[in-house]
Design goal:
The structure holds two protein chains of two kinds.
Chain A: H1 3-22, H2 25-41, H3 52-75, H4 107-112, H5 114-125, H6 129-140, H7 145-152, H8 156-183
Helix pairs in contact in A: 1-2, 1-3, 2-3, 5-8, 6-8
Chain B: H1 4-14, H2 22-34, H3 36-60, H4 67-83
The chains are: A mainly alpha, B mainly alpha.
Chain lengths: 184, 85
């Protein structure tokens, strides 16, 4: 049990875990730092029942959830601006106002395409704040519905509606800014 | 059927979040027979989901803490240990 060696021994493991979630090198490094500082301060409480790496990852998970909660609080005010999903459909017929295009590219090539990933990021950032947050948690960070409900303190039904709206918005944005251009 | 596409698009999204009931799946598949737009939308959502799945797996391998960030963290740890002595 030597805190000085934690960074050497577990730095990469922690950073990888943080990057998988945050996908931002600065934020990921901050999370690793916060984790190690917190671990140092509470090193006496380490029981030895688990391995050091499991213990550190546990602290990192908490730090990540703290970060998300803070983000959520900041975005609560933006809630009113939530997109109106009915705008995507014709009120009379219930059909699409503009029809979704068929995306011909396969996932393997899409994820290698830096430009596409850039456009996807921009489209995500353009979503109403809460939709953006839950979509990022769900699809970029790979949390499951249940975890997100817990962190955000929303019901499953609410979460599913938010994700549905986010996906409608993204489809519109991607068709317009990416797939539409290719189809022409 | 009023608002059919809106409902089906919600189901298409829900399918990534929960297990759809038999009748939900049936109504979705039936709707796809008549509506190419919803069928494409459904396929696109699956594609996007899979794309980000692959991307995430890539991120998690082969990365290590960059040197300048490592030394920054080292410094803050040293400061902390100095204070607590």
């Amino acid at each position: 049990m030597n805190p000085e060696t934690w960074l050497t021994e577990y730095g990469d493991i922690l950073y990888r875990f943080a990057m998988q979630r945050a996908q931002d090198t600065e934020l990921a490094a901050d999370l690793v730092q916060d984790t190690l500082l917190a671990a140092w301060k509470s090193k006496d409480s380490f029981s030895g029942n688990s391995s050091v790496s499991t213990w550190l990852i546990g602290i990192l998970k908490h730090k990540w959830i703290d970060y998300l909660r803070k983000e959520i609080r900041q975005r609560e005010h933006a809630e009113l601006a939530d997109g109106d999903p009915t705008a995507w459909f014709d009120g009379e017929s219930g059909k699409w106002n503009d029809q979704p295009l068929q995306w011909h590219d396969n996932p393997e090539s899409l994820c290698q395409n830096e430009q596409f990933m850039q456009v996807l990021k921009l489209c995500t950032v353009g979503l109403p704040a809460k939709q953006q947050l839950v979509f990022e948690m769900r699809e970029f960070q790979g949390l499951d519905s249940e975890e997100i409900c817990k962190v955000c303190d929303v019901s499953a039904t609410n979460l599913h509606v938010l994700l549905h709206r986010a996906r409608l918005g993204l489809r519109g944005c991607l068709d317009k800014n990416w797939f539409g251009g290719e189809a022409k | 059927m009023k608002h059919a596409c809106e409902k089906i698009s919600q189901l298409a999204s829900d399918q990534l979040e929960r297990k759809l009931s038999f009748s939900e799946r049936l109504s979705m598949q039936f709707h796809f027979l008549m509506c190419g737009a919803c069928k494409h939308y459904h396929q696109n959502l699956l594609k996007l989901h899979e794309t980000l799945n692959i991307k995430r797996k890539e991120i998690s391998k082969d990365i290590s803490l960059p040197e300048e960030k490592r030394s920054r963290i080292q410094q803050s740890l040293q400061e902390l240990s100095k204070h607590s002595e």
